[in-house]
Amino acid sequence: MSDDALRRLAERAGIASNWTDYRGVPRVVGVQTLRTVLDAMELPCGSDAQIADSEARLANEQQRDGIPPLLTAVHGQSLQIGGTAHGGGALTVTREDGGTQALQAEARDGGLRIAQVDLPPGYHRLHIGERESTLAVAPNQAFGVRDASGGRRVWGLAAQLYGLRRDGGGGLGDFTALRDLVEQVAARGGDALAISPVHALFAADPGHFSPYSPSSRLFLNILHADPALAIGSDTLRALIDELGVGDTLQRLESQAMVDWPAASRTRLALLRASHAQLAPRLADATDPLGASFARFVVDGGEALLDHARFEALHAEQVRDGRWSWLDWPAALRDPRAAAVAAFADAHADTVQFHLYAQWLAARGLAAVQTSARESGMAIGLIADLAVGTSNGGSHAWSRQREMLTGLSVGAPPDLLNALGQSWGLSTFSPRALRQHGYGAFIEMLRANLRHAGGLRVDHILGMRRMWLVPQGADPIEGAYLQFPLHDMLQLIALESHRHRAVIVGEDLGTVPDGFRDELYRLGIMGMRVLWFERDYGLFVEPSRWPTGAMATTTTHDLPTVAGWWQGRDIDWRARLKLYAPGMDEAQDRAERDEDRKRLWGAFQYAGVTDLPVPPAPEHADAAIDAAVRFVGKTPSPLAIVPIEDIAGLVEQPNVPGTVDEHPNWCRRLPADAATLLATPDARRRLDAIGQARQAAGD
């Protein structure tokens, strides 16, 4: 078999057979990696004959009449439709509102060119001869912060939802605690609260709790649901007494870390008890509660039923030692199989419980966003869309034709992670997305925008190219796979417009040339982080930060301001031996000493501190105050400060490249959500960012 033929096929499929690492060293992708990625894309390549057949199929897909199931366009701009044999003239469009409209097209470059797509944003039907395609027309710009705020530059906080506290919370943050925090942020003048992902995890495995490794990005983590929302606080207290879990709840609430196994078991026990109590009402369509539940199930459709069935199946299979659906008996791997339907019938109560839990979680999240808007917040919640979904989870099981199996999303080695990363996540197949009219992608966007005023898209760089690692291989053995960036961004802009929600793309890392310009043209914000905004080694003054990006002090994967100032991140790198070859702790600490001086000089130049010299590393309060003002002074339309910085916390939520070595996704906040912002330090910092934002807008 010819390696050259294999590489030609890979390139045609969008797989780069060469790449350049962060040090500028050219790299060649191994043939086994190319075969694995091609197989995941359903392009067999085990022989010269298979390669030739796969190449012919790709060519046919890319050329046949040039009319895929869905085309994207931008209102008022041109559209090129490649490969169609249509001779030009008027094309008929059936608009989303039911009306018809003609678009003029001319034959050009082997296809059709529409000089101006004069259609309102929406999903329309384009008729070309005997063929039809959905024409998704995006607005010129996504819904923006200024659209939401009336032109004001606004600010907000970021919070790890699981870490929120409240009286009766049981040691695990929930949507009721989130509503408490939203009301406090609104009362202090904030317009947004960015939260960690609320995607569905695995009810049968409370040890799998990373919010960025979900079972499904379509549904919610039921552990954030508060049973009191359906049954009332008095009834919930009676259930706690009946189950004898009062002491357990008190113990969990007193701990500094989330005890995920114990907190999950207790929360699930209360959810199941509340479901058993409400089951007669839920089954009664004349009861308002039952009618609401019935509407939710109908609206959720097949996707919701699939997820509930998966949860029931997963619990049974885990008991038998089969965690991933890829290891289940063959008859259960297909969600449409008769064996799955039979199982669901035999375990109807369990399936109904998971439908109920999703309904309750959705009610809780919707109530938070309603409270945010009623409290005067211009944006409210900014949800977080994880970059992928667990290979063994509900989303991958129910959307197998659209997913890449046998591969993990990750990142090649870079300055922050010299060994590279493999996150154990699956993602969509770009080939399958095109073939299926981007249905799974649109479905996911709508699910995550349903109860939010904004959406942060994790690792949005992956919408241009994604680093994919064969399962079991080292991260450096991956390859870049090209994705249909223009189509995906235009669909994001369209859904942003329809949901009146702002979009933030997490564009940190190795950014391809021109990528950020593409985001900004569509009104999608990037992210700028204090630690990285430098020019020739010096920290860039606030006025030079870009206007098209959200500004922030730090992120969940980076040290807090106090942690950076004290060098706590260096402590962890040294303890966990995370240094790349050629770097060591002494060099790291020497560089940090210099960086503290540089940052303090930037603070002085920006006028956010009056102190003539930097405070000692162990005294970080003044550095936090200055950092908050500094970010607040940027011209960004939105400034976000993690609540860890408002509270002056040293530890960061997550250390990339670790699993159990660091207590990732476990740290709880030091006070209840309803009182956390009332301390003198918090009030001073919130006042400072509010004043800086107001001054930046003048």
Automatic annotation (TrEMBL):
Q: Which NCBIfam families match?
A: malQ (TIGR00217)
**Alphabetical UniProt keywords:** Carbohydrate metabolism, Glycosyltransferase, Transferase
What processes does the entry annotate via GO biological process terms?
carbohydrate metabolic process
Q: Which organism is it from?
A: Solimonas marina
Q: Name one GO molecular function term.
A: 4-alpha-glucanotransferase activity
Primary enzyme class: transferase
Q: Name one Pfam family in it.
A: Glyco_hydro_77
Matches recorded under InterPro entries: GH (IPR017853), Glyco_hydro_77 (IPR003385)
Official protein name in the record? 4-alpha-glucanotransferase
The UniProt family comment states: Belongs to the disproportionating enzyme family.
What EC number is given for this enzyme? 2.4.1.25
Do you know which Gene3D superfamilies this protein is assigned to?
A: Glycosidases
Describe the reaction catalysed, as an equation.
Answer: Transfers a segment of a (1->4)-alpha-D-glucan to a new position in an acceptor, which may be glucose or a (1->4)-alpha-D-glucan
